[in-house]
Amino acid sequence: MPSKPIPEPTRETQPYWDGCKKHELRVQKCRACGHYQLYPRIYCTACMSEEVDWVTASGRGTVLSFTTVHRPVTKAFAEEVPYVVALITLDEGPQMMSNIVGCPPGQVQIGKTVEVTFEDWTEEISVPKFRLVE
After folding, report:
1. Please, which residues bridge with residue 115 across strands?
2. Is 0.70 topped by the overall pTM?
């Protein structure tokens, strides 16, 4: 079975992946205006300040949209079908795409509350996934 593609942290994304390794979901927050953002940037997308810090997010969010994958993108994901890929609005505001795990795909609905969980893919890389909150 081929292996899954492993994310490669960059200088800008390393704090995000360091958080994931500790099973913490991190986002950036602007010290100047309080705006939260994800994906990482060197400036705030709301006010253009360079005063952005990494903070630990609540790990909770809402399903904005989703699809159920029945045909895997590569053979590395073949054993996981069907699986759900969702766009999640974090409670802090940023949106991120991830999988929803731990339930049959038919239970996933727009508007459902989710919380982060992590899959350890290597000793250095843990990937955030989400599960439904009852």
Report:
1. 60, 131
2. yes
Tokens 């929803």 correspond to what residue? 100
Mind listing the pLDDT tens digit of every residue in the chain (134 residues)? 568 899 999 999 999 999 999 999 999 999 999 999 999 999 999 999 999 999 999 999 999 999 999 999 899 999 999 999 999 999 999 999 999 999 999 999 999 999 999 999 999 999 999 999 98
Q: Which residues contact 117 (CB under 8 A, 6 or more apart)?
A: 101, 102, 128, 129, 130, 131
